[in-house]
Amino acid sequence: MKDLLPLFRLLKKWFHLSRADRCMFLHVLCLTGILRAFVIMLPFKWIARYLGKQGMNSPAEENVVKLEAAQKIGRAVEIVSRYTPWESKCMVQAITAKVLVRKRGIANTMYFGVRKNKKNGLVAHAWLRVGPAIITGNCSVEEFKVVSLFGDYGCDYIVRKDCSE
């Protein structure tokens, strides 16, 4: 019975969410699973093609409405990632959030960084920035040396092809 208590608390929270929030959480859950499979099975160079323009930074400012929407997506990704039966660490979280903010036309930049740990080994990390805010992976990102970044202007790539150039 003791083991079921967290599950009951989670279910109680679930039923108090709005329908839109429940849909968002389910969308994030499915997307993290799909993207986790891609990260495991595909070479990174294939995934990188869809992350945006390499070496490009998105604007440091974003309008308040888009920033709030992006932060809501980031919170959903972070919460769902705690409960997935598969591993949903920083890279899966950042790509998931990137897909969702891009879909909403929000400019963003995904960063990949490294730092040394206490045993002189390398630790890799990925995070997503929208405007001035870190949306996913905000664990002392200033400690990491950025080795690659992928930016989006946040426009609709189908309608405005000039945005990706």
TrEMBL record:
Transmembrane regions: 24-44
UniProt key word Membrane: yes
Pfam families: Transglut_core3 (PF13471)
InterPro entries named in the record: McjB-like, McjB_C
Keyword list, A-Z: Membrane, Transmembrane, Transmembrane helix
Domain of life: Bacteria
Ranges of residues in domain Microcin J25-processing protein McjB C-terminal: 39-147
Protein name (Swiss-Prot/TrEMBL): Microcin J25-processing protein McjB C-terminal domain-containing protein
